[in-house]
Write a structure and sequence with these properties.
Radius of gyration: 21 Å
Helix content: 25-40%
Distance between the termini: 36 Å
Largest sheet: 8 strands, mixed
CATH superfamily of the largest domain: FAD/NAD(P)-binding domain
Number of domains: 2
Number of strands: 18
CATH architecture of the largest domain: 3-Layer(bba) Sandwich
Strand order of the largest sheet: 6-7-5-12-13-14-11-15
Number of helices: 10
Shape: globular
CATH class of the largest domain: Alpha Beta
Structural class: alpha/beta
């Protein structure tokens, strides 16, 4: 790291904070990170996430701008991961959508939404209808359990915990100063003044609520299972009466199963109802989950703004806040990262405009 480069402070060491601190350090900044908790990212929703990169699948519940950021991520993540010393599991084998017969009406509505997205974004791979034979060809272990499905080519996923650990390794190797159990707020610094940093970046998620009152928490509950008897080669989503449930296969027969969405910032242990729904849905997809071992059932709250969209806000000419990643953190963080880096470099907001991101100010 260049000892004569700009001095930058990053608040928060979740996904966004680690990505930004890493890339700033690579660009020659002298970076310090302040995190309210420890180096294992226990306080970050990124630790609990499934880290799916599924812009077409997510288009059923989000806006076109998020879809655009997700498309960008599918090409940006491989380049970012190639810069890491430690390996991170990444695959791009598409998404499989399944449903039981009683949920066919909801599946038809879901398909209509995806086809509308395909029409608006013709550069996205078109979804494909599957019958039992087509499902079996993609996932032989499912047998004849499902009569219909959808395949979304080109979508991907990565291993969230491997990535967080690999980013921490990079920060240490780049001599980034890391302050654990050391919460700070933007008003603790006066960037640009003598003896102060050149830039401050606030990536604290819900920790920024005192400065960004519109933030709210959306609770999610996720199960991690070890299921040696289950072989799935791509993320699989099950149409569900209350919410789409996903099964994301990681390495060594580890599966991440989610995702409930509850309008609450409650971080208490998962409810019996949510746990039963997650596990029974997984079993209904593949009977091998009956013998799986529960590694963890975790809860976290995602930082969300009123419109469920991300935002970038200035608190002055040298302080930037990035927040509101909601359930799309891994899918949109590369776009937000590059917008922030462009802002630092004074390259204007062309990239932000591409993603329909307006640089807000505190008064917004």
């Amino acid at each position: 790291m260049n000892s004569e480069g700009p001095v930058s402070i990053v608040l928060g060491a979740g996904l966004m904070g680690r990505l930004l601190a890493w890339q700033l350090a690579r660009a020659g900044h002298r970076v310090s990170v302040y995190e309210a908790q420890g180096p294992d990212a226990q306080g970050s929703p990124a630790r609990v996430a499934a880290a799916m990169l599924a812009p077409l699948a997510e288009s059923a519940i989000t806006e076109a701008s998020v879809v655009d950021m997700g498309r960008y991520a599918l090409t940006r993540w491989p380049a970012l991961l190639a810069q890491l010393v430690q390996p991170v599991f990444f695959q791009q084998q598409g998404t499989l959508i399944l449903w039981h017969r009683q949920d066919a009406p909801e599946a038809q509505r879901f398909e209509r939404q995806l086809r509308t997205t395909n029409t608006r974004h013709p550069d996205l791979p078109a979804l494909e209808n599957l019958d039992t034979t087509g499902i079996h060809a993609l996932e032989p272990s499912l047998g004849q359990r499902f009569a219909q499905g959808l395949y979304l080519p080109g979508e991907g996923q990565l291993d969230n915990r491997q990535l967080l650990a690999a980013l921490l390794h990079e920060l240490q190797a780049l001599n980034v100063t890391l302050h654990w159990q050391c919460p700070r707020a933007p008003e603790d610094f006066s960037p640009g003044q003598t003896g102060q940093p050149d830039f401050v970046f606030d990536c604290r998620g819900l920790g920024a609520h005192p400065q960004w009152g519109q933030l709210r928490g959306v609770r999610g509950e996720v199960a991690r299972l070890h299921a040696p008897e289950v072989s799935l080669s791509r993320p699989t989503r099950l149409i569900h009466p209350r919410y789409p449930i996903y099964i994301a296969p990681k390495e060594d027969h580890v599966f991440v199963i989610g995702a409930t969405e509850i309008e609450s910032d409650d971080l208490s242990p998962p409810s019996v109802r949510s746990t039963l729904e997650l596990l029974s849905a997984a079993y209904s997809v593949h009977s091998g989950f009956a013998e799986a071992r529960i590694l963890e059932i975790a809860t976290q709250c995602r930082p969300t703004l009123p419109d469920n969209l991300p935002a970038i806000r200035t608190l002055g000419p040298r302080t930037l806040q990035i927040n509101g990643l909601y359930r799309h953190g891994f899918m949109i963080s590369p776009a937000l990262l590059d917008v922030a880096l462009s802002w630092v470099q004074g390259d204007g907001m062309n990239l932000a405009q591409r993603f329909q991101l307006q640089l807000q100010s505190r008064s917004n």
